[in-house]
Please model this.
Amino acid sequence: MKNKQVACAMAQAQGVVGNKVPLDMEEPAPCSGAQRDITRLCAYCGQLCLQHGAETALVDQLTTRMGMAFGMQSVEVAISTTFIVVTTLSNGVCITTTRRSTDRGINMHVVAEVQKTVIMAEHGELEVSQVQERFANLAPLRYPRPVVVGMVAASCAAFAFLAGGDAPALGIAAMASGIAMYVRIQFAAKHFNPLISFGVAAFVATLVAAYACKQGWSTTPNIALAACVLFLVPGFPMVNAISDVLKGYTNTAIARWAIATLLTIFSCLGVIGALSIVGYQA
Amino acid sequence: MSMESFLVWLPSLLLDIVVASIPSVGFALLFNVPQRALKYCALLGGGGHGLRFLLLHLGVHIIPASLAASLCIGFSGIYLARKFHAHPKVFTVAALIPMIPGVLAHKATVAMLSMYQQGVTYVLLERWLTAFLDAVGIIGVLVLGLVLPGMLFYRRQPVV
Model:
């Protein structure tokens, strides 16, 4: 028994794939390389989804489906906001593995690609090695920064239009949000906490917009001030929090809700700080 | 609403749909939605906001109107998800953004600041509370409408 454990540990340490090491024993190895590879794939699949802003039900589901697609008898997943634990069962042997999950920002491209891979694996179109290859070659999509800044500025102008702002208000909202979005991207690139970059972005946007409104160009200054910070709405954490709590994943829901609330509070603090400095009376 | 008044509203409705699709695409870029899904985000965002615009002008209160629009986005999201084998949230969350009551939330923030600076008065308190409650109510039904379709019709199996 002890021999077998040692052999297995050695196999794991050397990263040997398949039942190659304990050839001299009568019984099969307690942990097969194939099951280990599949477990790692499941864990990586869940980790990718969790890091890129998928709701917990989807993380759970995709991880389980990935394991079942490759013939595991059962896959159990435990999910928290900072880690994911996966246990697979095959031929009476369990393998459990834990992965740390650091927030990589919302990226629907990664989630969509992982889902496509899982569906292809379920249809038997992919082998384990092909899935590994797909995951290894998965480069998260990032839109070019100038495009994002430009579209955010246009979005805030559109918000101002929808709220009934006049033409100068549209211009002010576009300018202020464009500058603030640039600041937010710079802060995110320097790995600042999202809470801080949101607060600073709200501060910058409101500062620019309030100065512009003080010049008296626009007859609807309040709409310009409101629209220029709307790109900071934490839409995804909020929607994911409600989805999670409705589907029974209360712990991750509370965490996501806390993050969404804190992001909003920090944005509000940025707005209040800038308004107090400029001394703008709404 | 008679046919004539509808024809009067039609240009502003179309303008509303076009303008509302801009923030949907903007947020879709922030969420790194795949490129081929961007047009559906624009379509759902514009359509949802346009539906709410129409309902508001038919005299529906903003909360049921928002719920109807977000339910519409939610169902369309499930249709698109089944068609393209991607999770509905890839399409729907960005489409929801134009309907977020940002101006109300901002009004509440400014009222809070005024209460802090000038002291609490009945007028300021009322302004803060009405804006705050309206904003929370609208956001609540928007998110609920997005989540409900999947929960009602895909209880035992995944959407894709």
